[in-house]
Amino acid sequence: MQTHTVMAQGSAAPGGAVAERPRALAHAVEILRFNTCGSVDDGKSTLIGRLLYDSKSLMEDQLESLERSAEITGGGQINLANLTDGLRAEREQGITIDVAYRYFATPRRKFIVADTPGHVQYTRNMVTGASTANLSVVLVDARQGVSEQSRRHTFIASLLRIPHLIIAVNKMDLVDWSEERFLEIRADFEAFLPRLDIKDVKFIPISALNGDNVVEPSRHTPWYCGPTLLGHLETVHIASDYNLQGFRLPVQWVNRPQAPRDPRYHDFRGYSGQIAGGIVRVGDAVLVLPAGLKSRVKEIWTYDGSLPEAFCPQSITLLLEHDLDVSRGDMVVGFEHLPGMDQEVRAQVCWMHGRPLQAGRKYLLKHTTATVQAAVMEVEHRMNILTFEPEPARELGLNDIGQVRLKTSRPLVYDGYATNRMTGAFILIEPGTNATVAAGMLLPPPRAITPEYHDFVI
Amino acid sequence: MRSYHLDHLQYLETEAIHVMREVAAEFERPCLLFSGGKDSICLLRLAEKAFRPSDIPMPLLNVDTGHHFPELNEFRDRRARELGAKLIVRKVEDAIAQGVATPAPGEVSRNKLQIPTLLAAIEEFRFDACIGGARRDEEKARAKERFFSFRDAFGQWDPKNQRPEIWNLYNARVNPGEHMRVFPLSNWTELDVWQYIRREGLEVPSIYFSHPRLCVRRQGQWLPVNEFLPPRPGEEVRELVVRVRTIGDIISTGMIESRADSLDDIIAEIAAARVTERGSRADDKVSEAAMEDRKKAGYF
Q1: Which of A111, A112, A123, A268 should one mutate to test binding to chain B, selecting the residue with the greatest count of B CBs within 10 A?
Q2: How high is the ipTM of this complex?
Q3: To the nearest whole percent, how much of chain B has pLDDT over 70?
């Protein structure tokens, strides 16, 4: 399979003219996923509206509908936020309650945008939108400066290990395009950014309402020499955001044709799943965990034909040389960069439910394709969002972030979240109500498994 | 040096296959909604990619309004046969006859009546998950939807209280009587769908390609002339060369004038389009929140 990314050729002008779009998009391009966050009224929805509008991704009927509602409710002023605030309750209250996803493209890239809510009450929805992002845009109101929510959202972006961050200092028009004010806010962030785990941070002064430095460079900020917001989104390097070290295939579904119409598949036994890390090649020695069975890759099967190699995050079906007992929830791994395997794990969690997390409670824990029971052994601490310091806590309430120790009913085969976002993440589900109550990020395993002890079964 | 990247269609495909397999693995009795439209055609190919060489481990379900385009029904039945898939069709007119669905006085459209018909089918077969081809780019209420969208025992969606959906860890748990709507194409756009159809060489029903058809001008749109809602006196009727961008039933599907008679033409046309796909669906024009209100009641 040809897997090289073909970058679109053609005009590099952000947005591109309407007439260029078909030619530009006929090529295959990369997708960048990003989310926008920040306090209420910092202008997130307006910014997305502006990006869509200035990149000519808005359609005439959407504009008409905006103009209609402007005449009815807005005193003639078009409200770009109405593009993403799609629920009745959101338009009634003028706030974003749940994540809205938007799609737009320029000749260089396709974008999936998660417009995530600013209210503390809806932090869980912010985590939902941010968890799949390559990049986070944290909006700050230039007048208000760094708020508690700015800190919380920056911290969550760091916790979720979102590789790239843009701090968009918005409403610069309301502070007279003051470079001093911009530098002040930047300094406020830089005072705490070194304590977080974000490597790539960019500061951009903008006015989402008027479109300054969003798609087109602003004539109001001659002191700013960096890219526009869209310019940066189009060029930021995301190719290495997936983990290609250490092969991991969580077995999702065992493909065993009952009565295959093609006799060649009579003995077909494939392990289907999405590769969660690394690269696999035909002939590679692999280990099936937690059982510890060793085998070799016989074939990498796909509907489009067999592959010589496959990589994260491809969805494939693996055939092994030996007939093994492998089922959903098991993990096939390579022999380099082995994962950990433990029944006691430590993790950072974002708590998302009104009933607090306390020691002694039991939940279902979904990690890759495995769902196991988990008991909370101990709440180790809660993070203070204002100081970024851990503080003692007996429980975690709604929207708290803290560290816990868990015991699971079956060993987890895992990596630290910092090493692998797919094999280091889990959710907790409350039995009975089936509510998703937490997002969890595993701390690195104390030791990797040692394969020599597992060689005995072949 | 070799680079390990996925282009946008490969990325969307791998994500959708993952979702399909989660459904097959986590639910007892899933089904796949197949209308014969372009989105569900992509779903079928994704199902083949997810499950071959096994059979697709779930039946196909279609709610037939009785106002479908005949070419669409023919296509639907034939594709199901070719794939060796079990096809279940539940008809709105049967639901009306059985008292499951009741039209409002004078109501001709069967759009809303699909809701009780679909919910009755879900109850009849005790489906706990329905995979559908809805996309977030279609409409702003859809833009709010999760991949795994929970429905309570009345089939209702509660947009203010959705489950957080983090990473690719989908919470697929439902209690008896509840079910999940699952949308593997959530992140696809109209253009992605057509590019995928072209890349995969998929067959689509003929009404997507330009053809001459008798149309009637109604509420600013060209609707196909049909027996269910014949032209009223004074309405303008013309034979035009048209095609559809989105297919509802025959009385609410706006035709667009177009010369696009190949996949390349369609892709070029959509890439340059200045109105959204749903701009041609009469059922969405009822109010600003028409889609949201129908979805809360169980609409697909």
Answers
A1: A112
A2: 0.92
A3: 93
* B214 strand-pairing partners: B239
Q: What is the Cα B260 distance to its own chain's centre?
A: 22
Is the confidence at residue A68, as pLDDT, over 50? yes
Are residues B143 and A261, on separate chains, in Cβ contact within 8 Å?
no
Residues with Cβ within 8 Å of A429's Cβ and at least 6 positions away in sequence, in order, are A363, A364, A365, A366, A371, A435, A436, A437, B171, B173
Tell me the per-residue pLDDT of A118-166, one tens digit each, with 9 for 90 and over. Answer: 776 777 888 888 999 999 999 999 999 998 888 888 999 999 999 999 9
CA Rg value for chain A:
24
3-state secondary structure of B85: coil
Nearest partner of A100 among B183, B168, B15, B136, judged by Cα: B136
pLDDT at A17 over 70: no
DSSP string, A233-275: HHHS--TT-S--SS-EEE--EEE--SS-SSGGGTT--EEEEE-
Q: How far is CA A324 from CA A104, A252, A330, A352, B91, in A?
A: 46, 16, 12, 39, 46
In B, minimum Cα distance to A109 occurs at B8
Cross-chain Cβ contact A253/B24 below 8 Å: yes
User: Is the minimum CB–CB distance between A414 and chain B shorter than 8 Å?
Assistant: no
Scanning A225-264 for CB atoms below 8 A from B yields 239, 242, 244, 252-253, 255-258, 260-262
Of A6, A272, A313, the CB nearest to B21: A272
| A120 neighbors A248 (Cβ within 8 angstroms) | no
pTM of structure: 0.91
In the DSSP assignment, the letter for residue A8 is P
CA proximity to A169, closest of A188, A156, A155, A191: A188
**CA nearest A103 in B: which residue?**
B137
d(CA B139, nearest CA chain A) in Å: 8
**Beta carbons of A252 and B171 less than 8 Å apart:** no
User: How many angstroms separate the CA of residue B299 from the nearest CA in chain A?
Assistant: 16
Return the CA Rg of chain B: 19
Q: Judge: B171–A87 Cβ closer than 8 Å, yes or no.
A: no
User: Quick check: A4 and B8 CB within 8 A?
Assistant: no
Residue A125 near chain B (CB below 8 Å): yes
Q: Give phi and psi for A82, each to the nearest 5.
A: -65, -15
Distance between CA atoms of residues A457 and A453, nearest Å: 10
Report the mean per-residue pLDDT for chain A: 86
> Would you say B184 and B20 are in contact if contact means Cβ atoms under 8 Å apart?
yes
Q: Can you say whether the dihedral through the CA atoms of B187, B190, B194, B197 is positive or negative?
A: positive
B contact test, residue of A52, A93, A274 with most B CBs within 10 A? A274
What one-letter code names the amino acid at B62? N
Q: How confident is the model at residue A239 (pLDDT cuts 50, 70, 90)?
A: confident
Query: Among A3, A69, A422, whose Cβ lies nearest the Cβ of B5?
Result: A3
The tens digit of pLDDT for each residue in B2-37 reads 678 899 999 999 999 999 999 999 999 999 999 999
Of A420 and A10, more confident: A420
Q: A209-238 burial, b if ≥16 CB within 10 A, otherwise e?
A: bebbbbbebbebbeebeebbbbbbbbebeb
pLDDT at position A56: 75
Joined tokens for residue A43? 């202008």
